[in-house]
């Protein structure tokens, strides 16, 4: 089982799409539909990202999410901690003190200091957190952008604009619209 869940992957990919230059906010549903992932799962991620100050939300039909700060000021670690919390990579169970030959009373030499296994896990976690902290959403977007063919950014911008236009062209029916609709159905 992976230590970091798929929420981190989904969150990072969603934030990458928000680094684009489309002018309007993107809804969690649009971000999910664009990537072919669960809209309900993505919708659960964004309050965590918002609480962490990574995105900001606007409400209403034209609402959605935008990055709350520049992409080069949001680290991958910020996203991991927002979605997963800052839980440790490894939780030492202090097995070394349970050795059968100690008869339930481990000597001081066996438990003094940090366990060797725990020490290596701590170093690994620190190295991972350093790498995640130094890599920004802007870094990821730049490396992803290098792989994309010419015109892909415009295709994405057009896709988002079409979605946004569809939302803004749809209006809630007024009371008079509903009344007229009922009269038409009765006749």
UniProtKB/TrEMBL annotation:
Residues 166-187 are annotated as: Disordered. SUPFAM superfamilies: Winged helix' DNA-binding domain (SSF46785). InterPro entries: TR_Rrf2-type_CS, Tscrpt_reg_Rrf2, WH-like_DNA-bd_sf, WH_DNA-bd_sf. GO terms for molecular function: DNA-binding transcription factor activity. One of its GO terms (cellular component) is cytosol. Residues 166-180 have a biased composition (Basic and acidic residues). Gene3D superfamilies: Winged helix-like DNA-binding domain superfamily/Winged helix DNA-binding domain. It comes from the Bacteria. This is Rrf2 family transcriptional regulator. It comes from Dyella telluris. The lineage of its organism: Bacteria, Pseudomonadati, Pseudomonadota, Gammaproteobacteria, Lysobacterales.
């Amino acid at each position: 089982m992976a230590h970091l869940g798929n929420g981190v992957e989904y969150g990072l990919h969603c934030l990458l799409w928000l680094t684009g230059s489309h002018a309007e906010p993107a809804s969690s549903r649009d971000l999910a539909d664009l990537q072919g992932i669960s809209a309900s799962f993505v919708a659960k991620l964004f309050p965590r990202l918002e609480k962490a100050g990574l995105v900001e939300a606007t409400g209403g039909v034209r609402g959605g999410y935008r990055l709350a700060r520049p992409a080069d000021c949001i680290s991958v670690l910020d996203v991991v901690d927002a979605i997963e919390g800052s839980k440790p990579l490894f939780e030492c169970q202090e097995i070394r003190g349970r050795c059968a030959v100690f008869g339930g009373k481990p000597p001081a030499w066996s438990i003094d200091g940090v366990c060797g296994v725990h020490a290596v896990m701590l170093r690994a976690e620190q190295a991972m957190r350093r790498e995640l902290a130094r890599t920004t959403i802007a870094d990821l977007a730049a490396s992803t952008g290098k792989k994309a063919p010419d015109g892909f950014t415009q295709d994405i911008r057009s896709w988002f604009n079409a979605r946004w236009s569809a939302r803004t062209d749809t209006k809630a029916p007024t009371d008079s619209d509903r009344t007229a609709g009922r009269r038409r159905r009765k006749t």
